[in-house]
Amino acid sequence: MVDLIGQYQKIQSEIDKAVLDVMHSAAFINGPDVKGFQAELEKYLGAKHVIPCANGTDALQIAMMALDFQPGDEVITADFTYVATTEVIALLKLKPVLVDVNPETFTIDPKAIEAAITPKTKAIVPVHLFGQCADMDAIMDIAQRHHLYVLEDTAQAIGANYKLKSGEIKKAGTIGTVGCTSFFPSKNLGCYGDGGALYTNDDQLAKKIRMIANHGQSVQYYHDEIGVNSRLDSIQAAILRIKLRHLDEYAAARQYVADYYDKAFANHPKIVTPVRFPSSDHVFHQYTLVLKGADRNKLREYLAELEIPAMIYYPVPLHLQKAYRDPRYKEGSFPVTEWLCANVISLPIHTEMTDEVLKLITSKVLEFMKHN
Which residue segments constitute the domains of the chain, with CATH numbers given? Predict the structure, then answer.
């Protein structure tokens, strides 16, 4: 699904030098590369504060801790997403409130958000799924009217631009109260291990986030908050500094692949290609099809026999996961999410794909559809 070896080979000399420089300096924790990456990502995003951390799940947890959410507080998020988004809500003894998604963009449905708000609601966590932003104009309007925080989960959409109704263009994750991202290796901006970051324009919130991520201290051995130990190490920061310089180039390569797929599958009666939300760029962390009247599992098996990978994101909705069973929700509670979980399939999309490979993949998918 992702050719990390091919991507590395193109920038190997830069990466190797950056890693060896850290090794020679022995500044493995909070070294100059961490500070350099922080400053460069702030500039790229147009964010006042970037706080690196150990991974994207930690980023979400630290954000909720910094906003002083208390056990029993409700946090609204999408049912159609990776478990990490809901995991941290439950871990902090908050109450996950799941809502359905837009059937075209796969992102959280603002109307469903509004219907789910109660006096206990503290925040909305929109997930910018598969590479494009949720409807942030509508979400921010709801948040402002109901005095709610907005925590953007932008792990899959770093670098995407969003055009607000005011005409202002902002990067994914810089619109709400705080943005949270992951640098997992397969992400559009991925390191060679684990990594994450938070970003915000709120000075006081940034100060508190930094403290919480560093054992609750701003001065060594003086702990003003209950914190965690969540750091981006210097080697990963050095790698990310190199890869950040290529991020827009990577997005363009992914968009080229998506355009190729779009044209190949255009108007096919059994294939629905990804809908592009007019206000947001799509940086295509995943290229996800919805199948109509075709056996998804058989297609995946057929492609696997040809050594063409395909993935299902996500086969089981969060409300039907054993760990998140809730008497409020049952099968049928979120029809769009359940329909997507039964009908989506993602094809390979990454920065190293050639027309030859794309022709092979698309021809085999179409060949399968012709006979099934």
Answer: 4-99+107-244 (3.40.640.10), 247-370 (3.90.1150.10)
